[in-house]
Structure formats: structure tokens, C-alpha cells
Write a structure and sequence with these properties.
heterodimer; A: about 650 residues; alpha+beta; Beta-lactamase; 5-stranded antiparallel sheet; 21 helices; 23 strands; about 20% strand; B: about 400 residues; about 65% helix
């Protein structure tokens, strides 16, 4: 008998029923089974040896939830401790867009809510479609709903799927409609913000869905105001029942921010600006204006008014679609009708004659003249190879005059000469190309943000050859074929042309003139408080210097004083009847014309008291006549308010024909 | 005793032995397969422990007896073991002669369970509530169908005609159809696979398989065309192809299952350790169809591989007994049982590891459940029976 093949260890030699073939067939089955087991083992190896770490992470995600509780946000106080911004809880109706996700469902929910909340479906829809709220978070469609409506929703949950009633913290503004632009508003952090340098490195880390400052001081000081959320690490089971909860981070409320702003003066400034704009609108378009009050000795901003303005309470619950129309300023010119724009720091224009102190400063700094030199104030100044004529604002020949008097009467030809002398030596068109005039403008802070503690500050513009070449390359336009012309420098010497400055920059330069030459990085924030105790003082840094000696500054101040109190001062009419004997005001008017008539910038940059200045005020009105006519009266009104000189609350226009 | 030569020593020795000694040596009990019995008991104990770990936490938090499921499983094991003894006691040839009766009863129970007498669980009408014991006739039918096909094929002596194959198809098809109606696609697939395995070993020819394959295709088309299969069933069968574990979708079970096994790593998180997928109840049906996740997560690769090895040993013993059987019926029964276990292990573990569709097939000896435990112990009883009586005359 021959031994048969027996794979399974069967004793050989037994073959009662054709076992050989059966064994062969069995082997087929055996091989199949071995393959299956090899497959299982390989998969097991992959899952538990190779990919185990990934699954460990997934298991953690499964069971561990971090529950964040937002801390209460810090308040914002004025310099005297008056509350400007605080929190309150608002009864809000929110809709979960994850649940209410089909159009028909949405319409049904919106119709129901519209009836219940007595709101239009359109407003509700706009709120629901708010793209600034993450889709994973219920979006608030109505704040401050009445208790009855809230109870209806709470008690009839099945009729309102995906609709909730929550108490959400919103900002509250006890001082009312002031300071809207620089306070800013809060809202959910955007994906871009999360990646931005300000928010990225913060501790504790910012998370998607966090409520943060979206603009203004709320944004700039968000790290101080936000506080620390409490975090609970919660282990849940599959039914999301909490098995265990550990507090991994203790919540701390946000710190209060105390501002250098004086709420009283802020209100005075805003009222004066509004009143001045309304007065100017009798004769002009006057779509917007700005006024800033600054302490020249500390660099602190005392008041900052921008018009058109809005009630900050509109944005108390964040910026949503429905707020858009509430924010329309109602100005005569729609295209520049942005009430949220802070025109003190983010808007500007050519400063006109208020810039003359800078031209004089540049000339003295570069030793073109000395402060006691006199120059002719002719009706015209002829310059250049083509004998271009630059006219004074008056055809009267005012004769030889000092620097101080040139400021008082705002003689243009005096400054054309200074501009021409600087252009001849250092101009890009005529001189050695070192452009020392423009250099000086930059030295005193133009063409760059002042560094104020607000986001979105504009640096303005200083025109020079490089800028023009670039502008012509990118944009082009009339005159670009000539390139930089010497006449541009001459024109800039009286603050005209392609010079763009912000009211904040002007206030800063005048502050330097009265404080001995120090240029500050202005500050609105003054200190960070916790429970009323200062935890951090916010100091205004000295960022530069005018580079002029005391004598020069003294001469300038004399001239600026005479603008207001001299017989021929361009600001005189605006201050007619003002008790200058009690509070001596000094300043400079400015009227910059751009293009067509009427599209000018009216400026008045001033300070008081002249002998020991406490306040610098810069006022700028767009399309509102001359500086002495519409801007100076606004400043006057503010000074009157600050020093309690007059209970009158409206501005009357002054007389001014100078540039 | 001296005759040695061309015949093996064994043969030589048989020849020289007294009849009484020969009888004693051939006595069934002396030829018990202890390895098979030990593996079976280890598996059942392993399973019971895992069922305990998968249910104790939930029971505790519900204020119930944490050992309730363990006790029940031990009860099932005890009943199963008693049946094992019973089944191995009688010569399996008697069981063979009873096969038509057993088959008839099985088909009857499968029919009755579809009526109002049956209970619905997870959408499947497949249980009798007998008070102390929940009977799932489909699980019992697995072993019955193996016996029935084996009995039929053993008559044909590996020489099968087309009609024979058709009859086998009918024997397997009738209970399959009844199970399909419940519906319990997983169990039905086990029937189909066991039938194919028995046809392979039992002597079906290539053309028979080609014909069956064609028939299967036609059957699939009919099933889909006539909408006999529900969308969720298709979804269940195909969701494992979706590579990303989505905890919100139909593949939730599978995603949680993968996470449990994968996060177990090499050493596992430890028996009954807190804050696991198992203890936090993240894997649905963990104590029944997904019991392997409790092994994978708590005992890791080491525990899982050990389990896989145990199943390999179990199936090896079954196949070995198939080769040792003194008759074709025994061989076929052992083959059928090996195929049933192998397919269930592959389908169940493959399902929990995301390489097979979600099909409600329990893991032999491990999953919580009375009927499957009973059927599997009966299967072991049959195997021991065949093994013990391999020397007895036909």
C-alpha cells in the first residue's frame, strides 16, 4: 500500500471512500481559509501597530470635549472713570443653520419668527445669512426680544426646531452716541484674524468663534479686554453624558481699559463738529469733518470726533447685514458716506496754509533762513524756466514781513520763496535731488501713520519724484508726461498739491510746536485696570522731534497767536467775541483747493492757552469753504466748551479768504 | 507481535491484539480530541470576559447588575456544554439518520419566526422569546443545514450530477429564503458560503460552479429589480468602502469600531480600564456583533492576535477531523463546520476592521447570544463525535 498525501495529519493508508480526491478538495478550502486569516492578520497589524496613533487621536476626539465659557469683556472708561462701554445680557433669539438648512424650512421658520417677533422676514433673513458668524454656531437673528416671545419659543420647542432663546452678552454704551468710530465694535473672530500676527501668538490662544474686537480700540486692546475663558475638559460617553469634568483653565474677566478721552470734551467736540457741519451746509456740501483734541504735553488724545457718525449701540451685538442701513451717515454725498470711518486718523487731504509752519520749519532746519529773517510778501511769485506765476491769496502787496507775520496774514508768496529756495538746492526737478523739504515733512511725521493706538490708521502722502513716477506708472493721468516739476515743490510749500495729511498728524505737529519740539505717538488708551487698580500704564512714546530750537518755536507761536488775536489774523473773525483775555487761543487756518471750486479742505489747527498750552485742536471739514470760515468756529466752540466760556451750542461761520 | 515488514507498525499491532483490548482501544472516549475541547472552552471564557467588559459599565451606570450579561453568557455556555456532551454521546450516524426530521423542524421554526410569534430586533424578525432563553432559529439552522447537505452528499459518494447540485441548492435555499425574508442577509451569506464549501469538498464539478455563478448573478438582478432589498441594506453593505470614518453616517458603527480597535495599539488599554471606547459605550452592539472591538481596544494587538490564533487552531482541528473521519458524512460535516466558522470569523472580524461590509454575523463563541452559542457547542459536539468514532466500523 502506498502512503497517500495527508495534509492534516491523517494516518496514511486509509482510503475508504476516495479520500485522496476529497483531501485535494479539502485543500482548496484550506487554502481559502488561510488566505482569509492572512488578510485578517494584516489588517489587524495595520490598525493596531501601524495606524494606532491616528486612531488614538480619534478616540480622544470622541470622548473629550472642551467646554469654553466666555469671560465677561472688560469695560472702557474715560479718563475720569466714567463708563463709556460696558456689558449687559440681552435676551436673543438664535437660529442653528445646521438644523434649519433647507430653503423651505428656513422660510417656514422665518415666517413664524417674523410673526412672533414683529420683525420683517427680510431683516430676519439678512441676520440669518450673516456670513460673519460661523455656520457651526447658532446665529442671533434678534436681540432684546420681549419675554413673551422668548417664552413662546421655549415652551413650544417642537414648533421652532433649531430656534433657541439665549442670554447673550452685548456691549452697552451708557454715554450714548459718542466716540463710535474709535471705540469700534465686537464680533466673531474671522478666519483671517485667526491667522493674523496680532491674534495668532496670544495666550490663551484665540479660537474660532471667539468674540473679539473687530475695529477701533476694541480691536487694538482686545488682548487686555478679552479676559481668559474658563475651560472644562469633559469626558463624555456616546450619549454625550458627562462622565467626568475637570477645570483646566480658570476663567478671568477681561481688564478694564481707561482712556485718555474725556467723555465731556468728547461730547463737546462731536457736538461742535456736527453743529459746524450743519452751519457749513447752508453754503457748502460739507459731507464730512473731523476734530481731534490732544494734550500736547503727553501725546494723549482727549477727544476725537468724526462726522458723519452713528450710535455705537447699533453695533452692540456685532456688525450684521441689517446694521448697514443704520450706519448710513445721511450726508449729501453718498460716495463718501461711511459713518464708521474714523476721519481723524484714516482720512485726510491737503492741509493748505496750516502746513506753513512745516515749510518754515524745513527752511530753518536746513538753514535757508533764520527765524528773524524777513521776506517780501508780493502779490505774485514768478518761478521756473517757464516763469510760472504763483499768486498770493490777496492782490495787495503786503511788503517785507517776518516769519511770525507771514503766519498771521497767511502770506503765500513768503512760503513760495522758501519752497523755491529748497527746490533750487535740493529739489528733484531743479536741485541735487536730495529732496530735503520732503525729508523734513517725513521727519515730522507725514507720509506715515502717527502710530496711534487704533487699527487702520492712514499715513497720508508726501508728494515727491519717486511717488509721482510710481503714480504715473500705475495710474497715469494729465501731466504725467512732464514728470516731477519744480513747481510742485513750490505749490506744496503752502500745503497744496498732492499732499495728504490726517487731522491727527496735523494735531501732532502743532503739539510739537508748543511742547518744545517733541513728536509723540499719540495714545487714546491711558491705562489697563483690574478691579479699579492699574495693572499697566499706557505711555505715549516720543517718536521724533521737529529739530528746531526754542527761538524758532517761539517765533512760530507768536505768529500763530496773532492769527487769532492779531488785527489781520485769518482766524480773527471766527474768534470775534471770544474771551481771549481769559483763554488765549493760537492757531492756523488752512484752505486747500483741489480741482474744481468748492472741493476744498477747510482746516484750523490750534492750541490754548497760548502761554501754557493744555490742548491742541485740529479741525478739518471737507467741502466747507475756508478754514477760518468753517473749521475755526468748530475749534472755538470746543474751546468754549472745555473752558466753560459759553453755553451757546451752535457754531456760526467766520470770515476767511486766505488759503 | 513479531510480524513487521511492508505494513506499518500499527497494522501489525492490530493484527496481533485480543479483540477485547482492540475494542477498549477503539472506545470513543479514549479518542476524544482534548485540544478542540480546550480551545472551545478557552474561546467561550474569553468571550464571556469580553462580554462582561463591554456591558458592565453601562449596567452599572444604569443601576443594574454589572454581571447580568456575564451570567447570562455563562448560562448559555453551560447549556451549550450540556448539548455538546449530549451530541457527542450518541454515534453521529444516528444523528445522520435523524437529519430529515431535524431539517424539517428547523424549516418549521424559521417559518414560524416570521409570523406573529417571532420578535423583531434591529429590524430583523428572527427571535423567539422563550422566557429564559431567546432562540434565534437561523443560528441553529446553520448547523442543521450542514448536517442536511452532508447527509445528502454523502449518499452521492462525491459523484455529483446537475440534479444533485440542484437538490443541494434546494436544501440550502429553503432556509436561506426564509432568513432573507427576516431579513438577515449576513446569516444568509453564511448559508451560501457553507453550501459552496460543501459542494467543493463533496464533489461538484467546475461546470456546476459556473452554473451556480450564473444563477447567482440572475438572482442578484432579480433581487435588485424587484426592490426586494432595502436601501439601508445596500448602504450597510457598501459603506465600508468609504475610506473616511464618518461618525454621523450609516457607517457610524464601523467608524467607532475602527477607532476602538486602532486605538488599542499593541498592548491595549487594559481590561475594563476607564475612558475607553468600550467603557464609554461608543461602539454600538459591542457585546454582540462588535465584541471583537472590546478585545482589540482593551487587550490590543497581542490579545487580538491571540484570538485570531485560537480561531485558526479551532478551524485547523475541524479540518483535521474532516481528514480523519471514517466516512464521507463525517468529513463533510467537519468541513461544513470549519467553513461556517472560518466564514463567520472573516466576515465578523473583517467587518469590525472595516474590510468587510456590516453584516449581522456573530463571532463564534465570543459574541453574546444564546442560539449561536448553542449551535457552536453542538458543532463542537459533532466534531468530537466524529473524531472519537473514527475507528469504529461503519
Amino acid at each position: 500500500m502506498v502512503n497517500s498525501f495527508s495534509p492534516m495529519g491523517a494516518p496514511p493508508g486509509k482510503n475508504p471512500f476516495g479520500m485522496d480526491r476529497v483531501l485535494l478538495r479539502l485543500a482548496v478550502l484550506g487554502v481559502l481559509i488561510v488566505v482569509a486569516f492572512v488578510a485578517l492578520f494584516s489588517r489587524l497589524w495595520f490598525l493596531q501597530v501601524l495606524a494606532s496613533d491616528d486612531y488614538t487621536d480619534l478616540a480622544q476626539e470622541n470622548r473629550i470635549r472642551f467646554v469654553y465659557s466666555e469671560p465677561s469683556r472688560g469695560r472702557i472708561l474715560d479718563r475720569n472713570g466714567k463708563v463709556i462701554v460696558q456689558n449687559r445680557l440681552s435676551l436673543a433669539v438664535t437660529v442653528d443653520r445646521q438644523i434649519v438648512d433647507e430653503p423651505s424650512e428656513r422660510n417656514k421658520t422665518l415666517r413664524q419668527l417674523s410673526k412672533l417677533l414683529e420683525m420683517s422676514t427680510k431683516d430676519l433673513r439678512d441676520a440669518l445669512n450673516d456670513i460673519t458668524v460661523s455656520p457651526y454656531k447658532p446665529v442671533a437673528v434678534a436681540y432684546d426680544v420681549n419675554m413673551n416671545a422668548a417664552n413662546t419659543i421655549r415652551e413650544n420647542g417642537e414648533d421652532y426646531p433649531g430656534v433657541y432663546v439665549e442670554r447673550l452678552p452685548v456691549r452697552e454704551y451708557p454715554q450714548g452716541k459718542i466716540a463710535a468710530q474709535f471705540l469700534g465694535y465686537v464680533g466673531e473672530i474671522s478666519p483671517e484674524d485667526l491667522e493674523s500676527s496680532y491674534f495668532k501668538g496670544a495666550k490663551p490662544a484665540y479660537r474660532a468663534g471667539d468674540i473679539v474686537g473687530r475695529s477701533g480700540l476694541e480691536r487694538y486692546y482686545d488682548r487686555s479686554l478679552r479676559g481668559t475663558p474658563s475651560i472644562d475638559k469633559v469626558i463624555v460617553n456616546s450619549a454625550s453624558n458627562v462622565i467626568r469634568s475637570d477645570r483646566v483653565q480658570v476663567g478671568v474677566p477681561g481688564n478694564d481699559l481707561m482712556l485718555s478721552i474725556d467723555a465731556r470734551i468728547q461730547r463737546i467736540a462731536e457736538d461742535a463738529l456736527e453743529s459746524g457741519i450743519q452751519a457749513a451746509r447752508a453754503s457748502y456740501l460739507a459731507p464730512w469733518g473731523a476734530a481731534v483734541v490732544m494734550d500736547p504735553n503727553t501725546g494723549q488724545v482727549i477727544a476725537s470726533a468724526s462726522n458723519p457718525t452713528f450710535d455705537p449701540a447699533i453695533l452692540a451685538d456685532g456688525f450684521s447685514n441689517k446694521d448697514q442701513k443704520l450706519l448710513e451717515g445721511g450726508t449729501p454725498d453718498d460716495t463718501i458716506d461711511d459713518a464708521m470711518l474714523n476721519r481723524v486718523t484714516s482720512e485726510g487731504g491737503p492741509p493748505g496754509s496750516s502746513f506753513k509752519v512745516v515749510t518754515a520749519g524745513a527752511a530753518i532746519f536746513n538753514d535757508i533762513i533764520d527765524p528773524y529773517d524777513s521776506l517780501d510778501c508780493n502779490p505774485t511769485f514768478t518761478y521756473g524756466v517757464d516763469n510760472q506765476i504763483f499768486a498770493n491769496w490777496t492782490s495787495v502787496d503786503m511788503g517785507l514781513m517776518s516769519l511770525a507775520r507771514s503766519l498771521e496774514v497767511s502770506c503765500d508768496t513768503y512760503y513760495y520763496q522758501l519752497g523755491a529756495m529748497m527746490e533750487d538746492r535740493w529739489g528733484a526737478g531743479n536741485g541735487d535731488g536730495t529732496e530735503r523739504f520732503q525729508d523734513y515733512m517725513r521727519k515730522v511725521g507725514f507720509d506715515a501713520p502717527t502710530g496711534i493706538d487704533l487699527p487702520g490708521e492712514s499715513g497720508g502722502n508726501v508728494a515727491d519724484k519717486e511717488w509721482l513716477d510710481q503714480y504715473c506708472d500705475e495710474v497715469g493721468g494729465i501731466g504725467c508726461e512732464y514728470g516731477w516739476l519744480p513747481g510742485y515743490t513750490v505749490n506744496m510749500s503752502i500745503g497744496q498739491g498732492d499732499l495728504v495729511v490726517t487731522p491727527m498728524q496735523m494735531a501732532n505737529v502743532y503739539a510739537a510746536i508748543v511742547n518744545g519740539g517733541k513728536l509723540y505717538e499719540p495714545r487714546i488708551g491711558m491705562s489697563v485696570l483690574r478691579d479699579g487698580e492699574e495693572v499697566k500704564s499706557i505711555e505715549s512714546e516720543v517718536s521724533g522731534n521737529l529739530g528746531l530750537d526754542a527761538t524758532t518755536l517761539e517765533v512760530m507761536r507768536t505768529g500763530l497767536e496773532d492769527v487769532v488775536s492779531g488785527d489781520e489774523g485769518t482766524g480773527g473773525s471766527a474768534f470775534a467775541g471770544f474771551p481771549l483775555d481769559r483763554v488765549q487761543v493760537a492757531g492756523k487756518t488752512g484752505t486747500a483747493e483741489i480741482g474744481e471750486t468748492g472741493r476744498n479742505f477747510a482746516w484750523f489747527v490750534s492750541y490754548a492757552p497760548a502761554d501754557n498750552p493744555e490742548y491742541v485742536i485740529a479741525v478739518c471739514l471737507y467741502q466747507a469753504g475756508h478754514g477760518g470760515e468753517s473749521a475755526a468756529p468748530v475749534a472755538r466752540q470746543i474751546f468754549e466748551g472745555i473752558y466753560n466760556l459759553d453755553k451757546e451750542t451752535t457754531v456760526t461761520l467766520g470770515q476767511d479768504e486766505s488759503d | 507481535m513479531g510480524m513487521r515488514g511492508v505494513f506499518g507498525e500499527g497494522v501489525d499491532r492490530i493484527g496481533g491484539e485480543p479483540i477485547a483490548a482492540q475494542m477498549a482501544r477503539k472506545a470513543p472516549l479514549r479518542h476524544l480530541d482534548p485540544t478542540l475541547l480546550i480551545i472551545t472552552l478557552i474561546l467561550a471564557a474569553y468571550g464571556a470576559l469580553m462580554v462582561y467588559s463591554a456591558t458592565a459599565g453601562r449596567q452599572e451606570s444604569a443601576g443594574l447588575d454589572p454581571s447580568a450579561f456575564l451570567n447570562r453568557q455563562l448560562f448559555y455556555i453551560t447549556i451549550g456544554f450540556a448539548l455538546l456532551l449530549m451530541v457527542s454521546f450518541f454515534d453521529y450516524r444516528h444523528i445522520r439518520s435523524l437529519t430529515p426530521v431535524i431539517y424539517g423542524i428547523s424549516v418549521l421554526t424559521l417559518t414560524l419566526v416570521l409570523t406573529g410569534m417571532g420578535e423583531v430586533r434591529n429590524g430583523t424578525r428572527g427571535w423567539f422569546d422563550l422566557g429564559v432563553y431567546d432562540l434565534q432559529p437561523a443560528e441553529i439552522a446553520k448547523v442543521v443545514v450542514i448536517l442536511a447537505i452532508a447527509a445528502f452528499l454523502a449518499e452521492r459518494k462525491t459523484d455529483l450530477s446537475g440534479i444533485d447540485v440542484t437538490l443541494v441548492l434546494a436544501i440550502a435555499g429553503l432556509p436561506s429564503l426564509l432568513i432573507f425574508v427576516q431579513p438577515d442577509l449576513g446569516t444568509m451569506m453564511v448559508f451560501v458560503f457553507v453550501m459552496l464549501a460543501l459542494l467543493v469538498v463533496g464533489g461538484a464539478k467546475l461546470r456546476h460552479f459556473l452554473a451556480l455563478f450564473g444563477l447567482g448573478l440572475v438572482g442578484l438582478v432579480v433581487v435588485f429589480q424587484a426592490n426586494l432589498i432595502q436601501d439601508y441594506q445596500i448602504e450597510r453593505l457598501t459603506s465600508f468602502l468609504d475610506a473616511t470614518p464618518d461618525v454621523q453616517s450609516e457607517s457610524y458603527n464601523q467608524a467607532q469600531s475602527l477607532i476602538a480597535i486602532g486605538s488599542g495599539g499593541v498592548r491595549g488599554k487594559g481590561f475594563r480600564s476607564p475612558n475607553t471606547q468600550t467603557s464609554l459605550d461608543f461602539v454600538p452592539e459591542q457585546h454582540t456583533d462588535f465584541i471583537f472591538t472590546a478585545v482589540g481596544e482593551q487587550l490590543g494587538f497581542l490579545g487580538s492576535a491571540a484570538l485570531l490564533l485560537m480561531f485558526a487552531l479551532l478551524i485547523w482541528r475541524a479540518l483535521r477531523i474532516a481528514t480523519l473521519s471514517k466516512d464521507l458524512f463525517g468529513t463533510l460535516v467537519a468541513c461544513g463546520i470549519a467553513a461556517m466558522w472560518a466564514f463567520q470569523v472573516f466576515l465578523n472580524m473583517g467587518m469590525t476592521m472595516g474590510i468587510m461590509p456590516i453584516a449581522g454575523v456573530p463571532l463564534p463563541f465570543m459574541s453574546f447570544g444564546g442560539s449561536a452559542m448553542l449551535a457552536n457547542f453542538v458543532a463542537v459536539g459533532l466534531l468530537l463525535n466524529i473524531h472519537m468514532r473514527r475507528f469504529l466500523r461503519a
